[in-house]
Hints:
By secondary structure, the chain is α+β, with helices and mostly antiparallel strands. The chain has one domain (4-162): Nuclear Transport Factor 2, Chain: A (Roll), CATH 3.10.450.50. 41% of the residues lie in helices and 34% in strands. It is built from 4 helices and 6 strands; from the N terminus they run H-H-E-E-H-E-E-E-E-H. The protein has helices at residues 4-28, 32-37, 56-69, 141-162, and strands at 39-46, 52-54, 74-86, 89-99, 112-121, 124-134. A 6-stranded mixed β-sheet has the order 2-1-6-5-4-3, with helices on both faces. Strand 3 (74-86) and strand 4 form a beta hairpin. It is globular, with a radius of gyration of 16 Å. It starts with a helix and ends with a helix.
Amino acid sequence: MTTMSEHADHLDEAVVRVLYHRLLEFWNERHAPGFAELFSDEGTVVGFDGSQVNGREEIELHLSHIFALHTPPAYVGIVREVRQLTGDVELLRAVAGMVPPGESDINPELNVVQTLIAARRDGQWKIELFHNTPAAFHGRPEIARGLTDELRAEARLRMRADE
């Protein structure tokens, strides 16, 4: 039998999963205001290259600049785990690949491991930290290939769903 507390925990996990997928969607749509709105006022992004951007306003400005100058690849993400840290803090771990503009395949050099920490304040879930780390797997090419294969399969599923 599911208790009210367990039901609430599952609901929180679902909300954090949606928050992550909305983040990727806003990136893929090149929508800086939407991306930034998912963060708390003090939220932080650590980018693929190690750049740190702090605060919702700075995140929006940073991404607006990137989107104005570039057409970045689109994310395809797979959630690996959502874990409750406290009643109002959730940790999400994911992997993602990127499909360059005009292409239909993942670029393995852009695969990442992502971490998102979300906190509930005044009943609203907001991102406190979103961190991208290159999934280089130095000296372990079989793991890198396996991740790329998994992300390619996910990308194909999503492309079929969009048709």
